[in-house]
Each structure stands twice: as C-alpha cells, then as structure tokens.
Automatic annotation (TrEMBL), chains A, C:
This is Segregation and condensation protein B. Gene3D superfamilies: Winged helix-like DNA-binding domain superfamily/Winged helix DNA-binding domain. SUPFAM superfamilies: Winged helix' DNA-binding domain. Keywords: Cell cycle, Cell division, Chromosome partition, Cytoplasm. The keyword Cell division applies. It holds the Pfam family SMC_ScpB.
Length: 240, 265, 240
C-alpha cells in the first residue's frame, strides 16, 4: 500500500521543515544575542548570555557568526576575556572626537608599573620592585587600583605568602585586548627570557674585555657634556 | 645673571642643598639604562665597567654638590663598586660565589628587562583605547549582570574603606621625628638588599660607608649595621667572619633553599 | 582614427570605476553613520550627522539604507522625535525587562562595616562599633545581610552572649578571594598606598580567622531559639 515515493517526499518535507525551523530559531537566537549585547555598554559574559537564551542555543557559534557579520561594519563585536561587547571600529576614531572622554594621564612610573603587572602577572610587589630597581612609591599602585585596571589576585605559595597583582577585565576592555596573551609583543618578550624573575640560563653572558678600562671601538668616552646633559654639572665657565 | 658665573665650589658652599633634577630618573636602574643608552650600542654589548664608572662619577658629582640622593642610588653605587672590583680582579681558582662576569650579565639582564618593559608600556598606551579610539554604546538600554547579587562593590573599595577608617581612628596625631641617625631598621633594610646580591665573602662596610653615609653619620651607621648584621646572622640570613680585632668584617649571603618559582608556570 | 567601440569600453570602465568608488564611499559613509549613532549618548539629528560627515554624503539616503539593513535585526534604527537612534527590536523587549536590575552601590558605612567584619571576624556588634567609633545603624547591617556577604556565626561566650558576625562563601566569591586569609595584611595595604607608612607602632590589622564555618573556642552555635529571635525562623508551633 505504501508508496515509497510519497514517503520520500514526506521525509524531505519534514527535513526541510526542520531545517527551516532551525534556521528561524538560529536567526531568532542571533537577534537575541545581538539585542542583549547592543543593550549593554559593558562587556556581557558568555555565562550571562546563556542564562538569557533558550538552553538549546549554541551561544559560542552565534557569537562567532555575529562577529563575522559585523567584522567590516562601523561597529565590531569584540571579545574581552570571557565576555563580549560591541565597540566602534578603531579606524573611525577620527570621527568620534565628540564622544571622546578625557583619559586620566598616568605618570611614567605608573605606566611602567602597569606594564610590568600586565606582562609579568601574577607578580608580587618585591618582583615588581626588582624589575624596576626602585621602590614603588605609595601612590603609584593606589592610582592604578583606582583606575580599576589592576587588582590583588591572590597570594604566592612561597614563604610569607606575598600578595600577587594582576590585571582586570576592565584593563582588557580599555586597551582593546581579547586576553592577556594578546598584549603587544608578549611572545617575543617571553621567548627572549625577559619575562622571567631571574636571568634565564641561556641569557647571553658577555665576553669580558681584556682591559676593562679601555673602551671598545664602538664606545665613546663619557664627556663632561654627558654629565651636563644629566644635569649634574653646571655649564662650564671659561677660566679667566 | 651673575649666578651663572658663580663657580661650582661657591655654589655648593652657599647653597647647602642645591636641587638638581634627579627626579627625572625612575631609580638607579633607570639612570643606568640612560647611561647605557648613551654608549649608543646594543645593551648586550655595553661595557659594564665603563657603565659602572659613569654611574659612580654621577653619584660622586651629586655628592660633591651635596644633593640628597635617595638610598636606592647609594645602594646601587655600593653594589656597582663591588661589581667593579670583582670584574677587575680575576676570580681565584676555587673561589666561591659568582664571578664578576656573571654579576655583570645579571646587570645586563636587568637593564634589558627594564627597557623591554618600558617599550611595552609605550605599545600598551598606543593600543586602541576605549574612550579614545573605540567607543561603547552611548545609550545603553540595560545593565547586564551575571551575578544575582544586586549590590556592587569592588575589593579595592572594600580595602580603601577599611584602611582609611582604621587609619583615621589610629593616627589622629602621630608625629615621628626626623631621624638623624641610622636606625637599626634602616641598616637592616640596606644590608638585606646588598647582601642579597653577594654570594661570597665581602667586606661590605667599606662599600656601605663610602656611599651611604656622610662623615657625621658614620659612627651611627657602623654601629647600626653591625648590630643589624648580628641579628641577621642569628636569623640565618647571613654569615659573618672576622680574622682579628679591628680587621675588616666579612659578610656573605647564607645560601637559602632555592625558592620554588610559581610564576607563569 | 577614433574607434567608437574602444571609446565605449573606456566609458564603461570609467563608469564601473565610478560606481565602484561610489559604492566604497557609500559603504564607508554607512559605517560612519553606524558608528556615530551607536556611540552617541542622545538620538542624533540629520543635521548633526551632516556636520560630522564629508559634505558630499547623502545622509538621508544612508539613513534609509541603514534602517533597511537593521529592519529584521535584534536592534532597529528608529526615528525618535526628529532624531535617529538604535533601539532594541520591539519583539525582543522582554529580554530587556529581565535586565532591568539596578545595581546598587554599597554606602561608605556599609563598606566599612563589611570590611571590619571580614578582617575582625568573628566580631560582635559592640566590637564593631568600638573599632568604628560610631554606632552602626540596624539598616546598615540589614543591607549587608541582604547582600548575602555576611552572616550570623554564633554567640560569644561572654555575658550577654552577643551574636558574632562573619563573612560567607558568597563574599569570597564576589571579591575574588580564595580564603579570608587572602585579604591583604598591614604591610601590603601600606605597600599599595592604602595605609600610611607612619602608623603608630601598636597599630595592627588582624589576620582574619580562616574557616568561616568553624566556630572559635569562645563561640557557641546558634540555636533555633536564637534564629527565632533574630527573625530568621518563624516561631515553632507546638505539635498537638
């Protein structure tokens, strides 16, 4: 009785319908993700997205798709740690001066400390000071904490259990980084051993000179001019 | 106008604390980096001895001008003097500790690392920054949180509140008089930093006294650093040796169990 | 000499190029409009857009196009009283209602009390007030209870058997701490510039009692009667 051809058609139709339903669902889910991300000025975590979407939705896939859709637009979808946010495209910065906010200017010391914390995290205060070769003034860490870019991370499992510092999600957001590994040049620095607390064994040890007091070919002797530049000598006065 | 024609000596005599901008430098390592840069060669190829020499000249000039130098600069000067002596005297066979070359390499490593961090800082501020290059939604329609908690507070806010509250209650009127002598604590801190670098017998006091003290403080400095060194011996941080009465006192870092480094896995 | 066919080709090519340039320009302009509308804190008028865009750009046309592009998306471009703004699509408004959580900031007093409870736990209300030097309003403790960050631990074995307070697991979770001991100590607060270097010698910060669930020797557990008194249990009804 059964007409196989008819069955086939039925199955096809069923399949098509399923596909269609999936497509509708996906496009609906995509719209939902889009709406939630658009509504927030802050990055939204994947966890928060999942909580707001039907359980059978593949959030990671949708985010990938949405990122693709917006990749050449005036607004891009950007990943910040485990969170996502729409941001204006960087090449349009010139248009946005009306929106620009006055960024707090960091002192040179604060900036250096920030970079060390970012590249060396988790880092203790003692390590930080070892790298800079100077005590960190009281205000510096305080100022950085206030920006919300650095935080106490935890404690190092060594005697004394010193506090470790690291960067925050808002640091990543502010500097447009997806994760800490995206810090500019971090791989090269690590490769060169410059992110370790101690001198790596393969770090080139210079060949000692025969006469340590003799300058090499490519050295200039230190002149009074140099010292003047350093602000240590007052300009020379001709002898009468 | 006339001030310009005044000789250095007169100036030093008439102005007890002449202000020269050493604040442009972020510490002794920064100053060394600047001097190394002046050698106009790759950091790996600088002459460490020349660099040490330049640094010491700088410090002596500053002292001659009676500038107040932060202790960090002087501790570095003492260490560099030590380094120089190690570089100039070849290592005797069987001698313990790091060679001058190894110490010099450590210094070069530290300079390179600092320079790398400085470059990194520049790259960092030139990233596309939020609020300068890229912008968030200007009219957010909702706050999306993944915590059920309706209250927000950061650890920083918590700690600030605690510290300032406790401080307010504790230090209504505490004034600590300016010290004119070396406290035991100062001596200890400086010794700790110097000795941390020295793995073989060193007559430390000579470096210490040369750079860190003024003649007026010398007696106090000797007494305090000696007392501090005894305490550090007792605690196991230090070993101490003297061959006879009034002979130099040798110190060395007592090797510790190597600490496990948990950084960056 | 002139080859009409050749001329034609030239014209065509020119035309294609023009079209192409127009298209690129339009897409660029479209990106600009998109970014400006997205980042602006208010709806943007056509006039304001014209001022910020190259003069040869047809703003009205772009707005129409952009509105079309976004018509089936999670966000739509809408005209709001003569000006333009992105808004969540009307059918997705239900998503936003869920989001209308107003994050409340803790008051200064509440932060102080919370911090003192964290560092000095187990701590009674009298001890708390002694440390703060002011009375603590019931409202402050209520708010903290509401956060779920503090809890009644037990009763101190002293006259009056005062209630002791401590922090909860959700406190650790919220502030990113593994254990209460991870709170910075006196030197670390000093190091971060939060505490002055010149504190009286007898000034101390306690190392917080580590196990938030275990009672100390001088604490008694809370009983049902206590909980009733605290209003946490409805009074028991005698069984018939």
């Amino acid at each position: 009785m059964a007409d196989p051809a008819n069955d086939d058609v039925k199955i096809d139709r069923q399949e098509a319908e399923d596909n269609w339903n999936t497509a509708v669902k996906t496009s609906d889910a995509l719209r939902m993700v889009e709406a939630i991300l658009f509504a927030s000025a802050q990055p939204v975590t994947e966890k928060a997205l999942k909580e707001r979407l039907p359980s059978d939705v593949d959030v990671a896939m949708l985010l990938g798709e949405l990122q693709e859709i917006y990749s050449n637009r005036g607004i891009n979808l950007r990943q910040v740690g485990g969170a996502w946010a729409f941001r204006t495209a960087a090449d349009l910065a010139f248009l946005m001066n009306r929106e620009a906010v006055q960024l707090k200017k960091l002192s040179r010391a604060a900036l250096e400390v920030l970079a060390i914390i970012a590249y060396h995290q988790p880092v203790t205060r003692a390590e930080l000071e070892d790298i800079r070769g100077v005590e960190t003034s009281k205000g510096t860490l305080d100022v950085l904490m206030e920006t919300g870019w650095i935080k106490f991370r935890g404690r190092r499992r060594t005697p004394g259990r010193p506090i470790t510092y690291g960067t925050t999600a808002s640091f990543l957001d502010h500097f447009g980084l997806q994760e800490v590994r995206d810090l500019p040049g971090i791989d090269e620095l690590r490769g060169a051993g410059l992110l370790s607390a101690r001198m790596p064994t393969n770090f080139a040890i210079p060949v000692p000179f025969n006469d340590p007091d003799e300058l090499t070919e490519d050295e200039d002797p230190l002149t009074d001019i140099d010292l003047e530049e350093l602000g240590l000598l007052t300009p020379k006065v001709e002898q009468e | 106008m006339e001030a310009l024609w005044e000789s250095q000596v007169d100036r030093a005599a008439s102005e007890p604390s002449l202000v020269i901008d050493i604040q442009g430098f972020e510490g002794p390592l920064d100053l060394l980096l600047h001097l190394a840069r002046n050698q106009r060669v790759d950091l790996a190829r600088i002459s460490v001895v020349a660099l040490v020499e330049q640094y010491l000249v700088f410090i002596r000039q500053a002292q001659a001008l009676r500038l107040e130098l932060a202790a960090d600069y002087l501790v570095m000067a003492a260490w560099l003097t030590y380094l120089k002596s190690k570089l100039l005297i070849p290592k005797a066979p069987g001698e313990e500790g790091e060679s001058g070359e190894e110490l010099a390499a450590t210094l070069q490593f530290r300079l390179k690392r600092l320079e790398a961090m400085r470059d990194a800082a520049m790259k960092l501020i030139n990233c596309n920054r939020l609020g300068r290059d890229v912008f968030p939604r200007g009219m957010p329609e909702a706050v999306i949180v993944d915590q059920t908690n309706a209250y927000s507070a950061t650890l920083y806010e918590l700690l600030t509140a605690y510290a300032s509250q406790r401080q307010k209650r504790a230090t209504s009127h505490v004034q600590i008089a300016r010290r004119s002598v070396w406290s035991l604590k100062d001596a200890r801190e400086i010794l700790m930093r110097l000795v941390g670098e020295m793995k073989d017998w060193t007559a430390l006091d000579q470096y210490l006294l040369e750079f860190i003290t003024t003649p007026a403080e010398r007696a106090s400095a000797i007494a305090s650093s000696f007392a501090a060194s005894l305490e550090m011996v007792r605690e196991g941080h230090l070993e101490i040796r003297q061959t006879g009465a009034f002979k130099p006192i040798y110190l060395r870092n007592r090797p510790e169990e190597p600490m496990k480094d948990v950084v960056n896995g």
